[in-house]
Queue: 4 jobs
Job 1
Amino acid sequence: MAIQKGERFANEDIFIDYPYEEVTYRWDHHSKQVFVRFYGNEENSQPIPHDNRLFNEALCCGEEITRQDYNRGRLRR
């Protein structure tokens, strides 16, 4: 099920896993920025644009995960 950007994005951090591309995302609702973390790597310190194609695919086809899952990271297959 698609992850909606609406009210939740305004009020809380959201964490998304997109296993098809081996990537996770973190939406920071305070700074209104998106951060990316590819499997097996640390989070990139530079935010990505809101209209990033892969991020928007993850919103449509990925799944929401917990902060703990995001911080733990995912291993490459």
Job 2
Amino acid sequence: MMATTSTRLTRGALFVAGLAAALLSAGAPAMASGTALYCGGGMGPTADIAVRAAIEDAQESARTDGRYSCEAADAPQVFEVFDDPYRGHVFYASVTMNCG
């Protein structure tokens, strides 16, 4: 039995509607939370100063979007460099903040 044009259109419309419903249901929890992730980077002579600078960088980025309440999403990543060509021994840090 051959499918008619109206059957194909109906199947296509149902497929598109089902796909849209699946995408919206998957994205609903993220949209409902009202939070966003911000990554910040910093450097300093100690690991603590580098982490603090990275947190301030992420918070400042969030403030430009009107988000003022932030908390750490992951543990900060700290990298120690002994032979930086401009600073010598220095620490770099990266943090991800969940801001709402």
Job 3
Amino acid sequence: MLKKIFEVIQGIYPKGDPFVIQHWNTYVKNPSLFTSIKNNMISDPLKFKNKGAVYAQRKDKAQENYQFVFISILEDNNVLVVGKTSFWSSRLINGTRDSDEDSTFGDLIKQYNIYRDTESAKKVISHYNDNSIDIDDKVTTVIIIPIDFSDFARARILKIRTALFLGHNPR
């Protein structure tokens, strides 16, 4: 299944070098566990190198912003979400640490059980035909594709989204 998803990604965005994160529901239920993975991802020279841009509303708060496409996969290998988001380095450009960014992961970590009225949560409930399920337990894998947003068009995300969607099992 992942092989097929990687083929789709490479066909649409050949610069994408994805991270695969298994047991995603563990991080959703305890987001602080994701901090070390996020820090490792940012420092990975092959995946996020030169793909961050300086983000700042004030000069003293300037820090790197890393944008990526993410694909959330259910336990039965159906694709739930293809989206784009970003996160920031916890190091400011001036070298100081921004503790506010330790647990900031953009739209990546979303507790569907809390926000059951979102489109994605409703799709999971409908897919399993069970309104009482623990939705977060069903999202088991996430693929993160770092993007160089200097040359990345939204149309590419839509192509990936069209190719991989809930109800389509890409085996």
Job 4
Amino acid sequence: MADDQQLRGTVRFAEGAVLPKGNLRFHFEGLSGSEGAQQVPAVAIVESDGKTDRLSFALPLPEAAETVPVLLLVASLERSDGWLLARGTAKVRPGDPADITLYPVVY
């Protein structure tokens, strides 16, 4: 896949803390103005080993990226048992890098 068909970026945990151990799941939501948001299925899962404060990623862009100028990239960090630990979002344009900050989920 060519580089122009991938979205590159980094994920950080709030306040510079170490990312907890778990799986980062990414999906896109299209921001299409008056037509409403279009959900794009999960595109990748990246593992966090719990030892670093940031992770780099490269994701394939969905086909919808050709028709939607701005996408909402959603990252969710889950433990191995599926418990949601943190979540973050970033508005991205195809070709621009994405930086996402994850914030702890409060139940």
